Amino acid sequence: MAQTCRQSGISAVYLELLDYDGDEIYITKCPELTGKKFGETLHSFADSSLIGIKRGDKTQLKLPMDFIIEDGDELITISEDDDKVIVQTKCPCEIQEEFIVEEYQPAETEPEYILILGWNENAASIITELDGYVPRGSYLAVASDREDAGDIWRKTGRTLGSLTVDFYFDDITDRKVLNALMARNFQHVVLLSNKDTDDIQKADANTLITLLHLRDISEKTDLVFNTVSEILDNRNRQLAEVAKVNDFIISEKIISLMLARVSENKYLGPVFQDFFDADGSEIYMKPAANYIKSGEKVNFYTVEEQF
């Protein structure tokens, strides 16, 4: 949730990697590539993308381009199926050097403003994770019907380096409360479900009410913000989609899918941990024009060459 609230659409990428309908992560032996540099092997697949190496019991992503693949190493790839991880002897397409943007400079990061609506057992961990992602000077507000939310947070003893946090005691299903909060121009909104109740349907109903209010506020005020929410009952997912929020995630489903993957291959555990850890390698969505000239037909090998 910490990652998806900051990038609209990224949860769809994670679901693609975790479920069994699309492209998935595989760990495969490819002895043909022994002795080659990691950078040289990026163009060695027609239907897969190389993202890392497993050496012994250790997995590693984001390797240096001069990393040498040794005998016994296994490749970590994204592919439609494990039988699609096929090595090709040379790159089938010419690298279109003329379409690569050579002088792209990343924009300076600005402080981010995040709103958490609701409070549950995951809130403290989400705040800590967000602190690892956001630029220094960012601000987070927590509004919930838990008057003791601030006390619960302080009792965790966790310290923050980039975030300043304030707590507000409010009814987050109240339109007037939401109007006042969103007037502060938050860029990201995290909506947490009440997991302490025995009535899951009521908890999801409150979530949906808040989602509909947020969507209406966005349409009537032209405010642009990403929204990520928890839905406790998967059957209510379609109702959440009706709200047309920018993004949402069902944490229980993600966890179930991840456990299923790891049960099939225990070495996928460290890979997922790397993805979901602020200190590891993460997935980002960036404008293609930052790296490749716009309006040109470019093969994917040229995109890979840029990195």
List keywords for this structure.
single chain; 307 residues; alpha/beta; Alpha-Beta Plaits; Rossmann fold; 2 domains; 5-stranded parallel β-sheet; 4-stranded antiparallel β-sheet; 10 helices; globular
Question: Which radius of gyration do the C-alpha atoms yield?
Answer: 22 Å
Helix and strand element order:
HEHEEEEHEHEHEHEHHHH
**Quantity of strands, as a count:** 9
Overall structural domain count: 2
Q: Kindly state the mean pLDDT as a whole number?
A: 89
**How many individual helices?**
10
Secondary-structure-based class equals: alpha/beta
Distance between the termini: 27 Å
- Beta content comes to 15-25%
> How are strands sequenced across the largest beta sheet?
7-6-5-8-9
Largest sheet: 5 strands, parallel
What name is given to the CATH topology of the largest domain? Answer: Rossmann fold
What's the helical proportion of residues?
Answer: 25-40%
What is the name of the CATH superfamily of the largest domain?
NAD(P)-binding Rossmann-like Domain
Query: What is the CATH architecture annotation of the largest domain?
Result: 3-Layer(aba) Sandwich
**Uncertain residue ranges:** none
